[in-house]
Every structure is written in C-alpha cells, then in structure tokens.
Amino acid sequence: MSDKKGKGPVFDPGLCRCCGTMKKCRVLNVEYDYMGQTVVYADMLMDCFGLLISHLDGKPTERLICATCVTRLRDALTFRKQVLQCEEAFLQMKMYDADWEDKTQENHVQIEEATVDGAPKLELVKTEPSVESDPGSGCEDDGGADYEPVTETSTTEVKPERDLDESNSNDDMPLNQLIKASPRPRPERRPNGVSSAHKEKKLKLPMSKVQQLMRERDPSYMTETNILTIVEFSYVCPFKCRHNHLLCYYCGQNFMDPTELRDHTGLYHHPKKFKVTEHKNMIKIDMTRIDCRLCNESIDSLDEFKRHITSVHDKKYYFNSKESVLPFRLTKDELKCALCDINFPYFHALNKHMNEHFSNYVCETCGLGFVDKGRFVMHQQRHEEGDFPCDTCGKIFKAQYNRDLHIDRVHKKKGRVYCPKCDIKLMSYPQKLKHLVEVHGEAPLSFPCNDCDRVFETRRMLTIHRRKDHLKDYRYECQCCGQKFFTRFALNNHMPTHTRERNFKCKVCEKSYPRLKTLKDHMRIHTNDRRYRCHICGQAFIQNCSLKGHMKSQHPEYG
User: pLDDT per residue over 274-306, tens digit each?
Assistant: First the structure.
C-alpha cells in the first residue's frame, strides 16, 4: 500500500534496496521535497559514492529506500560536502599566496628596469671621520663609521667597485685585514625605504587570516559567532527550560517568573562569559528587551538589531547562516508566540509550537519538522520498527518508545506528564488537566471548534475532530476496495475482510478471531465479566450486542 508524502509515494511496508529490511520506504528515483529543496535519492547515491542502482525503471516496489538509509545517506553527503568545501578553501589560499608572490617578483623587475633606464641609483658610501672632529663626539675607527646615501650625480666621490682580478690579490692578506678591505654587502633600497624581502613578507597572507577563512567554511562556527554577537551586544536574556520551568543559562537556577529570571541574569552574569554549550540545539532567548549595549539604541526586533550591529558598529554577523536562536517574549500571566501571537496556557506547549516555525530536522517517515536534533531523535523512536518485548509481561511492541511507555505506566506506575505548578508526574495529559482543576483551582480548559458548536477538553481532541469531521482527512486507503480511513489502526482492522485472516486465538477455547478487539470481547465470556447492564430491569450481559437484543425483546417500548 502507498500514500502520498512530500510529492512522492510512500510504500508501507516495502523492501529497502540498501539494507534489505521491510520498512516504510520511498522510491529511489522519484523527486521528494526536503527542507524546501527537491531531492532524488538515486542521484544522491551517485554523487556521494558513485553507485548506480540497477533496475530503476522497473516496478516502484523494486526500487525503494527506507528512512534509516536516507538519514545515513544525508549524513554521508553532508560530510563529503564539508570535505570539498575545506579543500576548495585550502586551494584558494594557495592560489592567493602564489598571486602575491608573482606580483612581488613583478615589482622587483620593474624597479630594477627603472634603475637601469636612468633612475638615480642609491648607494651607501662610508664617510671617514675627520681628524679634526671633536674628541668627545664618540667617533671611532670601526664603530663610528656612518653610511650616507648618494646618487651618481652627487659631487661626492663614489668608490669604484673592485674587479674580480683585483680581488684575487688579497689572498695573502691577514683575515682581519681582508674582512675590513672587502666591500660590505649593501642592502637594496626602494623608493619608500622598505626592502624587498620585508615587502614580500608583508604582502603574503598571514596564517591567522587563512585560519579565519577556513573557519568560516564551517556552518557551526558561523552559527556560534551569530549567537555570541546577539548575546554580547544586546540585552536579550538566554535561558534553558525543563518542562514548564525556566532555568538560568549560566548557573541553572530555577525560576517561575520570567521577570526574576531576567533580573537574576543581568545582575549576576556578564554576557562576555556566555559560552555556547549546546551546538546541536538552538539557543532560547527572551526578547522582552533587545536594545544595543554599545550605544543604548532602542531596538524592538531581532532583524533590526542585526542590521544595526553590523552597519553602525561593524560587528560580524553571518546573514547567510541558518537561524541560531529561538525567540520568545516571556511574561508571567500570558505566554504568546513571538512570531505569530498565538497564546498558550503553559510554556511547554509554546516550546513545542516552535517546531512549526523552525523545521530544521524533518522526519522522512511522517513529514513532521522539529527545531533541534534532540526532539527529532525522540520522535524517530516512535517509527522504529521491530520486536520490543516487555521483560515483565512479555507483551511485544513495534517501537521502543511504546515499550518504555508501557513499562512506566503499567508496571512502574510512573507518570511522564509534569504538573507546571507542583512538579508532580501524572500518567496522562487529561490527568494533568484534572489535577490542575482539582488541586490548584484552575478553570478547566476548553477548546471550541470554529466550524461548529462543539467544545473539547484538549487541543488534540479538537485537532482530530477538525481533521476527521470538517477536513475529511482520510489519508489511509485500502488497496483492495479503495475505502479510506482516518487512522492506520482502522485500516488494519479493515484488512481481514479481504485477507480472511484470523490471527487472534483464544488460549482457553482456541477460537480464533480476525481482530484483537473481538478476542478481548470474547475473553469476557471466560471471566464472566458482565459489564453491560440493563437500566430498566438490572439484568447484566457480557457483550453489548446481547444487551441490545435484550432491549428489543424485553423492553421494545424503549427502543
């Protein structure tokens, strides 16, 4: 069976051509949307590994790839791209240095040609100190000699250079006299007074600049630089969270009031001591006050601050890098999204809502987007297929997440839903709402439907109602008869009508049934569980159908 996901078919189950397992798969040579881009997995395999998958023109079910292999392929392609970018940067630096060396040599040649063509040639001539000079002037025979630059047009006598034949006559001279007699090497002078070696060293690109350009090839470096620029030069307040509690980013102190968090951060922690400790996650910041620390400019939006800090103060900010901060405007009495102005009862709900604005990681299986990798990995655990048995009761689950949830709720009696007021763990979200009303005196929440008059206790129930009753979002279709269903569970319950399979067998009487619900209803016969009672005569029945038959035969006036 298949359904449409991201402008491409999805087969569940299908045989993956890359790992050979039966999972939910996509087609290798069909275009899919990923973070605003069109991708073809067969092309990605060719670009990354040079692998050409065979039989890509056959049946769609014979050219599939699962979500796990797609994730590994994306990681490999990202690493290959990183290596190529670093190699390109290295070669550019080498070419840059070579260009400077060529230009330096050209300058040397031009200067020498200009000297030969008649430009005044500078020489250093040793001037002997006068015998009548002041004895206290400090001039000595060896150390007091000065060198004065003269030109060929000067009236000062220029000493002729020695010929090679004359230099041979000095073989018999003592070593110390030979050193004094030999002409000293004259440093080459340029019009600006800078030697060619020094100029070449100055023109060559410094290693610090090369390292900086190499660092700028790393997206994580640009992301970290942007975060440091925002936190250090503005009055935004970075923070962490644990469920519905706000934590100081620097010391981890717990706060319920955002005002107290901002006052604590500004009083006890300096922004220059801020360090990015979570490179894989976006940093949460409170933008109640932004403003500029350098000039006290009043700024209301983060985009305005970015333009201001780069244009006015010439600070570094990489606008081509992906968003690195998660913006909030925190108040004690009202939690409103800083991007779309939707109100939320608790911070946990607002934090989860940010996935809709920043879908940095997209699930290949269901298409949901997530802010950071931690949320994405937790979500992916729900799609892990396999056999995960419970060690206590032996029940088998298809996902590890469901197995762990079963152990906590059934065997350990351990809740997973935190109360935002007293930090107690409850078993489910409806229990938390009931706890807030009964213990903390909060008004019960209500979520009215905009299309009808129905009101729901939870947002999830409202969403299901809108999708099912108003949008008619029946996305699961039977491949045999074309009938559509709202959930995969409903589709699976429908399939035995075509396959005639009866996979659920009673351990007492060995009767088999096509659905688990039917087996559970049957098991009440053996336990004598008479839960359906007639409200007129009080007679109890095991099954609901028996009660309905009783009402028609014994109490037809109430039918």
Answer: 888 766 678 999 999 999 999 988 998 999 999
85 in Cβ contact with 56 (< 8 Å): no
Q: Name all domains of the chain by residue range, CATH numbers in brackets.
A: 2-81 (no CATH), 218-361 (no CATH), 381-496 (no CATH), 503-558 (3.30.160.60)
Which DSSP helix (H) or strand (E) runs through 180? Answer: helix 175-181
pTM over 0.70: no
Q: Are 325 and 303 in contact (CB under 8 A)?
A: no
> What's the token pair of residue 505?
């067998």
76 sits in which H/E element: helix 67-116
Residue carrying structure tokens 């992301």? 223
Task: Tell me the per-residue pLDDT of 301-346, one tens digit each, with 9 for 90 and over.
Answer: 999 999 999 999 999 898 888 778 899 998 887 788 888 888 887 7
E-strand ranges in 190-333 read 237-242, 245-248, 254-255, 283-286, 325-330
Find, among 130, 132, 125, the residue nearest to 158 by Cα.
Answer: 125
Q: Which of 15, 35, 37 is nearest to 26 (CA)?
A: 15
In the chain, how long is the greatest CA-to-CA distance? Answer: 149
How far does Cα 248 stand from its chain's mean position?
22
- Closest by alpha carbon to 187, among 116, 123, 97? 123
